[in-house]
Amino acid sequence: MPQRILDVGCGINKFPGAIGIDRNPRSRADVIADLDHFPYPFRSNSFDELRAIHVIEHVAGVVPTIEEFHRLVRPGGRIYISTPHYTDFSSFCDPTHRWHLNSFSFRYFGEDNAGYGYYSAARLNEISVRVKLLAFWRWLGFEFCVNHSRRFRRFWEHYLCYLVRGKVMDFTFEVLKPK
Predict the structure, then answer these.
(1) Backbone region of residue 7 per phi and psi (left: phi > 0; alpha: psi in -120 to 50; beta: other values)
(2) Could you tell me the pTM of the whole model?
(3) FRET partner for 79 with CA separation of 20 to 30 A, picked from 6, 62, 106, 142?
(4) How distant, in Å, are the alpha carbons of 86, 138, 160 from that of 80?
């Protein structure tokens, strides 16, 4: 059975084989809907995978949007999110960006929620976080260090990210739901 994939905010570059949802009628979306109004027109647990590529920074609320993503994806399914790092020029040059995120911005939904897990009942297991840095830092091997040590990534976020700026972050989450 083929995987059911939802591409949220697909624009004109809809993921092959996915169902696309977007607010823009000039996109290649299969479903036109306001991405800030919930629920989206799909049943709970309808998808094996959800992709939100350069979308989360545009929505009215990160927490309710992640909760809707969580509702739509079956237990054990995957959510892929890509967004600019808040130190990147692109995070602030687009006037439609409402949120400027870092590599720990989704921790409320995981085990490492720093005591703030009560903000949402949606639970995600962080499979991977990949931070892309500007080319100069990548060539020097700094990107490798940031991506291969959570401790180093935390140090970078706290002390170095304004000097060694991030570019884009790619997240992969597993959806956790009670049985």
Answers:
(1) beta
(2) 0.94
(3) 142
(4) 18, 23, 26
